[in-house]
């Protein structure tokens, strides 16, 4: 089975049981891997056992029926599979298997400041011994259940490169016996950067799914926000944890308006009356808490940018000069080509599409579909329709998300004939 779905049924589409397996996978994969890792003490065996349990579910549920507690069934089946595997390996004098089997038989009591298996899994994956890209990739694999191909697409690297990165990270965790726990208070600062990056990328991967028919994976967005709340609980005086939670809430407040009958709806075209006012109020309150601390960081600045959008009653009322100023600050704190791309979008709203295009053209983001989409829109606004069509084609080829492809295709197909100038419209995707 895939990370998000099930194989087709006899009539060409998935059966009800197969759809149920896919839904349980999306909701429970990360939790099952996290719980089993705690019970067994072996992350690799836990992940393999959970995958096997879902394969068994695909085989049995269509004929036996969906069990009363699907998540419990998956976890029990995975645990039995893992223990059987460990017994076989331990009989061949595998010391790791022996240790894991002993761990499974005599699980220690819960300890630590946060009793949450998935947060422990994030901290395990974010050990300083691992490079940050490996930390993020491994967490997306284990917590989000994404395929290696999807993670490679999100990182803009070839799939074999990502596969090697994930394998090496899991081996390092196993061989170095990195503990499955939230670290002590004095160790938290060394993990914070990686943990925040991982939670943010879990959210962004859910906000715009790298593949599939749906624009959003709501399960990943909800899980990232849940983890963000736990991090604020764990580190209430850490402004970047507050900033990250604020950022996710403000972006998530627009979720219900991002897709319409014809697919993706750009920020400028969204019905702002349908934005989640409770999430906006909470996010803006968190931004104000951050400002009072006077210790700005990248997540706080990004949250402030989203707060500017949330403040505007209409797209035309957006304070784009303030957005540009905030992106200037973000470039100082966390310079990257993607930040420069977003800044160029804001500059185009202040100084016109030609100014934005001049900034975009020098960015090394040709494998990133949003780069081509932004460039296409700026060219469209300048009346350079033939060049815009080529850029839309490049953006379509570079994304596997059906909602984005539909929007880009529709926009390309309605390009006007080349003219000296064209109307202005925000390219922000919301």
From TrEMBL:
Belongs to the sigma-70 factor family. ECF subfamily. GO terms for biological process: DNA-templated transcription initiation. InterPro entries: DUF6596 (IPR046531), RNA_pol_sigma-70_dom (IPR014284), RNA_pol_sigma70_r2 (IPR007627), RNA_pol_sigma70_r4_t2 (IPR013249), RNA_pol_sigma_r2 (IPR013325), RNA_pol_sigma_r3/r4-like (IPR013324), WH-like_DNA-bd_sf (IPR036388). Pfam families: DUF6596, Sigma70_r2, Sigma70_r4_2. This is RNA polymerase subunit sigma-24. Keywords: Sigma factor, Transcription, Transcription regulation. It comes from the Bacteria. Residues 25-90 form the RNA polymerase sigma-70 region domain. Residues 123-173 form the RNA polymerase sigma factor 70 region 4 type domain. Residues 191-290 form the DUF6596 domain. The gene is rpoE_10. Residues 404-430 are annotated as: Disordered. Residues 404-413 have a biased composition (Basic and acidic residues). GO terms for molecular function: DNA binding; sigma factor activity.
